[in-house]
Design goal:
single chain; about 500 residues; mainly alpha; Serine Threonine Protein Phosphatase 5, Tetratricopeptide repeat; elongated
């Protein structure tokens, strides 16, 4: 047998084993086939087919690193330049590329590949391939929680029931999940039990433990804990793949059921087992990732030399970019510092102008207050003079004009009373008091007269003006000032207002 015929024979054997669900334990045979076509007949369509089956065999072996994806990606590149495109190859490559992206949760990309696979399946008029692609699209939509689109694909799948007997199991499985999601657990349980009936008739090797787990989960939802525990135990008894990532959920399920049954010892035991399985699954995934990294960086000397040159060039470019960035940062910092300094100078000038303006306003207001005090003092002096002249006139005319005297005396007294009571009329609030004196009186230390006295002192009133305004004597004013100053000193208040 020639090498060409041997390669073709081995390719057919791999395809036949895949169709009959043989467990692949090695990819050496398909690797030999692919290598032959790569070296001797790259334009042969069987080279694309051998690349596709490299990915398929490795998938069936449970390999999850990039060695599954790379041959399929290469097959896709060759497929795109093929004319005319073989729809059978187009389906095969696109379906398994979509499956890889689905398993890696790249659902949008997976959808694109599945749609291409569906187009090729229709072109080759293969109902099984159309069904498989619809099933893949259904799961892809359900993972994205687009249940409306998922229902459309499920309706299409359901139309194949009893028409493709080997597919009834998968239709029931899809229906079970859908009914569980939309809140119809009874129908979901019916589908799971129907799957058990079909299990022994399936040519494809399936994991029945997952069916038992699903049934147990449905019974938990119904509150039928004995039935749930029965199927949960069966799920563990029939575990086929001890490396399956989600096996720890089976043990966790029994722990949860036992806890609800108040069997805490059993619950604790299975929680420990669940934790152990979870730990092992994580370790397996880490080992896979480490192996993937080792393969990725297992380069030849030439590749390493090229990589070093690229890295050196990259460092030069990065160094230049960093230098430019540092220069830009320095320039921006200098510009910002200059701008901030200029703003601070402008702010200082503005503050100075405001202070000068405020000083001028205060000076002007002080002048006005002083003038008002002088005016009030003048009015008070005139009132005193008027009162004296009234007394003098009263001595001369009291006997001859008593009625006129009484009226004039009444007017003088009323005017005097109004002026003397001005302190009551001028009772002020804390805000005005602070504006004049810059003193706060939160504790209510000062009475109304003391506040007026302090405000007048702030207006530079002398003792004579204070005595007139407060309707008292000079001696009384001196005593009041002394007592008030002493009180403020005891409270630790500023007494600068008393300086003359």
């Amino acid at each position: 047998m020639s090498r060409s015929n041997k390669a073709y024979y081995n390719l057919l054997k791999v395809i036949s084993d895949d169709k009959t669900y043989v467990n692949f334990t090695s990819d050496s045979l398909i690797n030999t086939v692919s290598e032959y076509y790569r070296l001797h007949d790259r334009k042969n369509r069987n080279y694309i087919r051998s690349l596709a089956y490299q990915g398929i065999v490795r998938t069936r072996m449970g390999i999850k690193d990039s060695t599954v994806f790379e041959p399929l990606r290469e097959a896709d590149k060759l497929l795109q330049v093929m004319s005319p495109v073989d729809p059978s190859l187009g389906y095969l490559v696109n379906y398994f590329l979509g499956n890889i992206h689905y398993n890696n949760r790249n659902y949008t990309t997976a959808n694109d590949y599945f749609q291409r696979a569906l187009t090729n399946a229709r072109r080759e008029d293969d109902s099984t391939h159309v069904f498989d692609t619809h099933l893949a699209l259904y799961w892809n939509e359900m993972q994205q929680k687009d249940f409306i689109k998922g229902k459309l694909y499920l309706d299409s799948l359901s139309g194949y029931f009893d028409k493709l007997p080997d597919k009834d199991y998968f239709i029931l499985n899809a229906q079970s999940i859908y009914f569980d999601i939309i809140g119809e657990p009874e129908k979901a349980l019916e589908r799971e039990k129907a799957k058990l009936i079909l299990y022994n008739d399936q040519e494809e090797i399936l994991d029945i433990s997952r069916v038992y787990f699903n049934i147990s989960d449905r019974y938990v939802g119904f509150g039928q804990l004995d039935s749930a525990m029965f199927y949960a135990q069966l799920a563990i008894d029939f575990i086929d793949d001890s490396t399956y990532f989600y096996n720890h959920f089976y043990f966790q399920n029994i722990a949860n059921i036992a806890e609800k049954q108040s069997d805490f010892e059993l619950a604790n035991s299975f929680r420990k087992k669940a934790a152990e399985f979870y730990k092992n699954s994580v370790n397996d995934r880490l080992n896979t990732q480490i192996a993937e990294l080792e393969k990725k960086y297992d380069l030849t000397e030439a590749e390493n030399a090229t990589l070093r040159v690229r890295q050196q060039n990259f460092r030069i470019v990065i160094g230049g970019l960093l230098l430019v960035i540092v220069l830009i940062i320095v320039i921006m910092y200098a510009w910002r510092t200059r701008k901030i300094g200029k703003m601070k100078l402008q702010q200082a000038e503005l503050t100075l102008r405001q202070q000068q303006l405020q000083a001028n306003i205060l000076k002007e207001e002080a002048g006005k207050r002083k003038w008002l005090l002088q005016l009030y003092s003048h009015i008070s002096d005139k009132l005193t003079s008027l009162h004296g002249e009234m007394e003098a006139l009263s001595q001369r005319y009291i006997s001859s004009h008593p009625k006129v005297y009484k009226e004039m005396d009444k007017i003088v007294k009323n005017t005097d009373a109004e002026l003397r009571d001005i302190t009551k009329m001028l009772a002020t609030d804390d805000e005005t008091f602070y504006a004049y004196t810059h003193l706060t009186d939160k504790e209510g230390l000062f009475n109304a007269n003391e506040k007026i006295l302090l405000m007048l002192l702030a207006c530079d009133a002398d003792n004579r003006q204070l005595a007139t305004f407060m309707n008292t004597t000079l001696e009384s004013i001196r005593v009041r000032k002394s007592q008030l100053k002493k009180k403020m000193l005891e409270k630790g208040l500023d007494t600068a207002i008393f300086s003359e």
